[in-house]
Hints:
Elements: H1 3-19, H2 25-37, H3 39-54, H4 57-61, H5 65-71, H6 75-89, H7 91-102, E1 112-113, E2 120-123, E3 129-132, E4 137-143, E5 146-153, E6 155-160, E7 168-172, E8 175-179, E9 182-188, E10 193-197, E11 202-206, E12 211-214, E13 218-222, E14 231-232, E15 244-251, H8 252-259, E16 266-269, E17 277-283, H9 287-297, E18 300-306, E19 309-314
Parallel strand pairs: 5-7, 16-19
Antiparallel strand pairs: 1-4, 2-3, 3-6, 4-5, 6-9, 7-8, 8-11, 9-10, 10-13, 11-12, 13-14, 15-17, 18-19
Organism: Herbaspirillum seropedicae (strain SmR1)
Protein name: Fe2+-dicitrate sensor, membrane component protein
Domain FecR protein: 111-184
Amino acid sequence: MGKDEKIVEQAIEWMLQLEQGDLPPGERAAFEQWKAADPRHAMAYANLSQSVQQFDVPRQVGAAPVILRNTLQQKSKRRKALKRIAALAGLAVGAAALLDRVTPVAALTADLHTGTGQRQRTTLADGSIITLNARSAIDHLISPVLRQVRLLEGEIQVQIAAANALPFSIETVHGSVSATAGTLMLGLQPLRTDLVAQQAAALLSTRNGQHATLAAGQRTWFDQDEIGAPRAAGGAENSWVEGYYTASDNSLEEVVAALRPYRKGLLRLDPAVAQLRISGAFPLDDTDRALSALASALPITVNRVSPYWVSISGRS
């Protein structure tokens, strides 16, 4: 049994004890200590509680409610029922996901990386300044004959120092961008890379041989095969550097995507409200305040099951 499965098993055992009635003070304290000992513990218990409500047990097992109520009074039967619910909800996967939400495991071997809720500003050997957004990672190689950064995850802003016209290249899985000076911002998405040429003209090349030039003040995207049509930059794309996400008639889905790297739990969004539009500045370093602001401005409900499980849905 893996560690994630053991955590779910522990959550089930605690739920069984709590369902028997009032716990003695010592046991209640032990339960709270267990939840506080590891964020995955609190997450697993919150997920299990939510899933017990979501997966209506009588209908899931096909038993008549009166029969099921009698059998669930037996602890062993109840344990089996809870394990069934945990399997249906994929809670062991949820525990593993939470570990990654705290520390992005895949980025730990990168030259520079940030965790959830962190930003990092670093001066490279050539004098260029690179700022990593939360949950971002890069490798870099700076020498007298080569200036190269590889964006592995997340989002960066690079203030490129002039160095005798030596190009500064930034690579992603989709292609590369280069400039000799100025400021560029890149964000790595699953299917594309977003680029903003804030104060620099940039040369783009996709993995499969497409090329283009992006003028200063423009933005675009590229994947391995093509480059999107350039558009005027809005001017607030780099507001995350100062700790804010600035929306200008953006979708709720876009705002939530910007908040996720700053939360150590799961932030779920109902697709039914994902395309609601909003404008405003939302604090990245206080995502609870940002979520409250969204709930005040839009017809949505923010349901905080626990600090590690928050869901957003339409207002009833």
